[in-house]
Specification:
317 residues, alpha/beta, TIM Barrel, eight-stranded parallel barrel, two-stranded antiparallel ribbon, binds NADP nicotinamide-adenine-dinucleotide phosphate
């Protein structure tokens, strides 16, 4: 594994991290989830990305992670970097989920109980909710850190204006933002234009999510929609309507470039993200050990020639 320093901090993260948004819930096979977590850790993937609502049902990915941690990895806690987040709905109801102080602090406590952890390495505000003042959310993060519930604070998906404000407030409170998490892939490059520069300038590291566009940047959908795919599952967040002919055509052309480089489309898509030195870590998802180990091989990817980079750019633009 290769590790990158997270912004201006003393923390290093693996360039590939494992996220538990899908495939680790109570509806999923526990044995596969456990195998993926152990394979990841044995491969040097020491950063695991959670959130209160990951499942389904919401909360169950943290329970799965907690069980594996307790039964298999308890001796290794200090070798792991574990994140969680709050801000999306855990349930429908007045306090079910936003970025208020009440939700963040109560959620953090509930996440600690589910995982059995004493503390998270980083706790994120999962989103700017459009209502809660950034001051309130950042004060909650500061208090979460000061109370020992988490070692560092992070933000996710904040629009540029609120992102800048969050960095300023956290810096003033002497709890600088360790890491900022944004969606980024060959199929979604908005964050690189809107958010990465602000993060890098403020000294925040960057973790990116859905680097394979939830599977669209793999060979999975090149010949139809397999029954065991995220797009086909009722519990998946990838909608059938997102699997468009245009995306599949682009994926086919990218797949040809990957083949000419001797790698899979998924491996090339991950290696391409890591060409941006501002990115600290790419948080991947996986539904099998086979996918996970194949994707981890992106670390051994050959470099990109200028011709390959401009060809890729012409396809994704
Ligand atoms: N901050 C936020 O708001 C936010 C939002 C979303 C995600 N995240 C984080 O980012 C993590 C990753 O997101 P993601 O799961 O969308 O990432 P992703 O890596 O873009 O998609 C993962 C999915 O792609 C498919 N896949 C992966 N490797 C494959 C391969 N080699 N061949 C074929 N298919 C492959 C699998 O889908 P199948 O199930 O179809 O096999 C897998 O579940 C999450 O777990 C979470 O921790 C954060």
């Amino acid at each position: 594994m290769e590790y990158r320093r997270c912004g201006n901090s003393g923390i290093e993260l693996p360039v590939i991290s494992l996220g538990l948004w899908h495939n680790f819930g109570s509806v999923d096979d526990f044995g596969t989830a456990r195998d993926m977590l152990l394979t990841a850790f044995d491969s040097g993937v020491c950063h695991f990305d959670l959130a209160n609502n990951y499942g389904p049902e919401p909360g169950s990915a943290e329970l799965t992670f907690g069980k594996v941690l307790r039964d298999d990895l308890a001796a290794h806690r200090d070798e792991m970097f574990i994140s969680s987040k709050a801000g999306h709905d855990m349930w429908l109801g007045v306090y079910g989920g936003n970025s208020s102080r009440k939700n963040l602090i109560a959620s953090c406590d509930a996440s600690l109980r589910r995982t059995g952890l004493d503390y998270f390495d980083v706790f994120y505000s999962h989103r700017y909710d459009g209502v809660t003042p950034v001051e309130e959310t950042m004060q909650a993060l500061v208090d979460i850190v000061r109370s020992g519930r988490a070692l560092y604070a992070g933000i996710s998906k904040y629009p540029p204006e609120q992102q800048e404000k969050a960095y300023r407030l956290l810096a003033e409170a002497k709890v600088p933002c360790l890491v900022s998490q944004y969606r980024y892939s060959m199929f979604d490059t908005v964050a690189a234009k809107d958010n990465f520069g602000l993060a890098a300038d403020s000294g925040s590291g960057i973790t990116v999510f859905s680097p394979l566009a939830q599977g669209l940047l793999t060979d999975k959908y090149l010949h139809g929609i397999p029954a065991d795919s995220r797009a086909a599952k009722s519990t998946g967040f990838l909608q059938l309507s997102q699997v468009t002919d245009e995306k599949i055509e682009k994926a086919r052309r990218l797949n040809d470039i990957a083949a000419s480089r001797g790698q899979s489309l998924a491996q090339m898509a991950l290696a391409w993200i890591l060409t941006d030195p501002r990115v600290t870590s790419v948080i991947i998802g996986a539904s099998s050990v086979r996918q996970l180990t194949a994707n981890l091989r992106s670390i051994d990817s050959p470099g990109f020639s200028p011709e390959e980079l401009s060809l890729i750019q012409s396809i994704i633009d």
